[in-house]
Amino acid sequence: MVTTTSSVVVPVDPRHRLDEARLLQYLQASIPGFLPPPATLHVLQFGHGQSNPTYLLHVELNGVEKRFVLRKKPPGKLLQSAHAVEREYEVLAALGNGKTKVPVPHVYCLCTDSSVIGTPFYVMEHVEGRLFLNPSLPELKPEERRAIYWAMAETLAAIHLADVDSIGLGRYGRREDYCKRQVERWAAQYNLSTGEGKPSPDPNMLALIQWLREHVPAEDRHIGSRTGIVHGDFRLDNLVFHPTEARVIAVLDWELSTLGNQMSDIAYNCLPYVVKNKETPPSAKGYGFDEESPEGIPSLPEYLAHYCKQAAVPWPADTWTFYTALSLFRYGAICAGVYLRMLQGNASGGKRAEDTGKMALYFAATALKLIQQDSMLNASPAQSLSRSSESFVNLAACQAEDDNQRKTFGFAPSARVQELRKRILAFMETHIYPSEKELSALAFSDKKWTIHPIEEQLKKMAKSEGLWNLWIPADSAALATHLLNEDNQVSGTRGVGERLVGAGLSNLEYAHLCEILGRSVWAPQIFNCSAPDTGNMEVLLRYGNAEQQRHWLKPLLEGNIRSGFAMTEPNVASSDATNIECSIVREGNEYVINGHKWWTSGAMDPRCQLLIVMGKTNPKAALHRQQSMVLVDMNTPGVKIVRPLLVFGYDDAPHGHAEVKFENVRIPVSNLLLGEGRGFEIAQGRLGPGRLHHCMRLVGAAERAMDLMVQRAKERKAFGKTLAQQGSFSSMLAKCRLDIEQTRLLVLNAANELDLYGNKVAKGAIAMAKVAAPNTALRVLDNAIQVHGAGGVSSDFPLSHLWASARTLRIADGPDEVHLGTIAKLELQRVSKL
């Protein structure tokens, strides 16, 4: 039997009766075209759901009948911020303006005058279609079930792709720290639903709250590709489907909607894969499947991969358990609230509402079981699907199914990237290459630690041409834009953010551009794309709080200041970050830092105002939870620059590399990044893209060497013919081209994997690129130096400086040996699984 939106209505619950005469009068006065007097009104109530009472309104006059749906707040004392019908109306009105692909019913009016029917309400159109109350879809054939689930995933993706700023929902909620706030919100709601004179708190719920607080993903701290509209209660029975087609025609129940981390939405939507109906009370069936794997319904990896493809978001392997546990916790807190309202006589839903008390206990227990298990998802969708009983034919089109397919993925730059590439090449030829000698002359003079006016002039030109901050990944561009625009609204210069955050590129797209910047040691800073600033800005974007971002990230994005990264120490092998000895001790509202660092790149720059310092806050904690990262103002008492360090005789002025001592340096506790013991986590997140940026630039350095080598070989004569005519040169040149092309593919493949699967899955590809790139660049540069003869080792050509920089990158960001160990370990694991 097919359930329709008209077949789930029942007579109005006596507790929820309305003043129909007053309501009819209000509607006739408020809705244009509403049937006038003496029209009659007949009211029925939707029996499905326990939250905001919802009614079907039949209005009739002289044989003409119209139907509307009314949703209102329930009567009685309500939990704070719950049952916000006003927000439901706002989001439905915005999504229904024709600018999105989200199917929602048309809304007619919002009434906040409680004197009309007792509480605020809104009225929307009645959409006639099919409702599926059981996620197992027993009324459908297997092939129909699959189509329904695909449509559901695509509808959620459409919601998540909606541009909130363009439809007027930019202030609908805070986008950052969504999960953290959700944990606290529902913990508070749960506490209000239990206690003295109420049901007793569940120990499992209390343990779950604590676990969630300690495991909020780092990605929750920033605005990125996973932030936007969150429905909050997106599930099958809140969708109206076309009467005959597998197509959603209306999304209902937006009571919990806001802006935030959208991965929580898809996890909540996937709870039927976790909840077992056989373990729930009889009246509470419908939360999960009737059987383990209903025929025709996609497996969890299949369904999630389809959503990820449609929403253009990465596979959430590392964080899925958290999001699922959060969803179960929210469900449990909601059930506890409904159960309390039932006890107080305010909840609709009858026996189902009564059983919500048992469901609250079940959800908490289920979440704790999941937490104690291994990760719910494999590292990639392909690995997860390898365990599935059915193949997912669409996955290959979304994200490559295995390693071989990934390696043949198309890496050619898009038309947009090709255009940017042409503009950068033109800028390099016109402005940067001609300025290199003058910039280098100052860097070798007694004024080396000052900034050449040409550099600042070139930076302004790069900004004006839209070639600024191109490194900012697509998923961080929204936050960067918001931050830069925030302080410009009053001054009338709103929109500056859009000009300063680059083009919202993926790592793969940026790779084609970053390579060009590597052709000159001066280019990266001209475009505000140089290390360690890019890595530090990425840390602040992903892990900094709002105040830290306003104070430090904004001037870094604008290029007004520079920064350093203080991790490496002279007394320990710092390639193993657990060796770090620098101490960060809390004393009251301050941290006291004592430590000795060196190779703190950027610290010599007169514009450097910020150091991100890694040290130990708890030496007794687990090995990888001892380290923390803090923000240190360069002018803080106790920060002492010991000396500039030389790289094969180059001090890289005015940027420089410093030996730094921290002697009883006191900073406020608010300068801590992410939390105590999260330093290693931040370091790993920082190093993935940062290592690749170095690799990209190294390919560019090799290309510059090739150009100079060929030019020199064609012009220089020895023994009666040009160097290019010498047989040994041809062989050397061909081998260099082979090296560069192979390395470029490794780098592009690593960037692609980083985009599709994230740091953890891409670590092998990144390690291969990190070993190959500096070694290739060194071989090509060495050959170019050889072709240039004595000139090659001089400062008259950029080759020796490029070589010195490339040689350091066999050590910086992890020595070759560490990356080779990673590659070997992964290879051993791969073979052992065959």
UniProtKB/TrEMBL annotation:
InterPro entries, sorted: ACAD10_11_N, Acyl-CoA_dehydrogenase, Acyl-CoA_Oxase/DH_mid-dom, Acyl-CoA_Oxase/DH_mid-dom_sf, AcylCo_DH-like_C, AcylCo_DH/oxidase_C, AcylCoA_DH/ox_N, AcylCoA_DH/ox_N_sf
Chief localisation class: mitochondrion
Segments forming domain Acyl-CoA dehydrogenase/oxidase N-terminal: 498-559
SUPFAM superfamilies in alphabetical order: Acyl-CoA dehydrogenase C-terminal domain-like, Acyl-CoA dehydrogenase NM domain-like, Protein kinase-like (PK-like)
Keywords: FAD, Fatty acid metabolism, Flavoprotein, Lipid metabolism, Membrane, Oxidoreductase, Peroxisome
Entry's localization field: Mitochondrion membrane; Peroxisome
Positions of the Acyl-CoA dehydrogenase/oxidase C-terminal domain: 677-825
Aminoglycoside phosphotransferase domain span: 43-270
Pathway per the UniProt entry: Lipid metabolism; fatty acid beta-oxidation
Catalytic activity: eicosanoyl-CoA + oxidized [electron-transfer flavoprotein] + H(+) = (2E)-eicosenoyl-CoA + reduced [electron-transfer flavoprotein]; a 2,3-saturated acyl-CoA + oxidized [electron-transfer flavoprotein] + H(+) = a (2E)-enoyl-CoA + reduced [electron-transfer flavoprotein]; docosanoyl-CoA + oxidized [electron-transfer flavoprotein] + H(+) = (2E)-docosenoyl-CoA + reduced [electron-transfer flavoprotein]; hexacosanoyl-CoA + oxidized [electron-transfer flavoprotein] + H(+) = (2E)-hexacosenoyl-CoA + reduced [electron-transfer flavoprotein]
Record's keyword annotation contains Membrane: yes
Domain Acyl-CoA oxidase/dehydrogenase middle: 564-665
Quaternary data: Homodimer.
Functional description taken from the UniProt entry: Acyl-CoA dehydrogenase, that exhibits maximal activity towards saturated C22-CoA. Probably participates in beta-oxydation and energy production but could also play a role in the metabolism of specific fatty acids to control fatty acids composition of cellular lipids in brain.
Family: Belongs to the acyl-CoA dehydrogenase family.
Name of protein: Acyl-CoA dehydrogenase family member 11
